[in-house]
Amino acid sequence: MIKAKPNEAWDMAMFGLRIGDHPQARATPRPIPLLRELIRARHTAVTTATTYDNRAYLAASFFDQIIREYEGTRLGQQELLGMQIEEAEGQPRNIPGNQTVW
Fold first, then answer.
1. What is the spatial distance between Cα 79 and Cα 49, in angstroms, rounded to a whole number?
2. Are 66 and 80 in contact (CB under 8 A)?
3. Which helix (H) or strand (E) holds 6?
4. The model's pTM
5. Which of 24, 28, 35, 39 has the most CB atoms lying inside 10 A of its own CB?
């Protein structure tokens, strides 16, 4: 199993942000210390959108499959809805539409 090293990955990604007036990085909002630090940084602009918002730019087959598989799950909240998931695994969470997900 490969261990994630987010700080090392970010250091390497920074080299890819050297072009243009407004370089951009995109990230799934996992609540790791590095991401929290980036969000608080003075020059960081945080924007949010869901997979639903981006539907027009995705292959229909991908959208249908990803929604069918992950909608209503913890990973779906993170990846489809762009939510930072802070709760412990196994705890109920409320998501848009007043739906409780376990």
1. 10
2. yes
3. helix 6-14
4. 0.57
5. 35
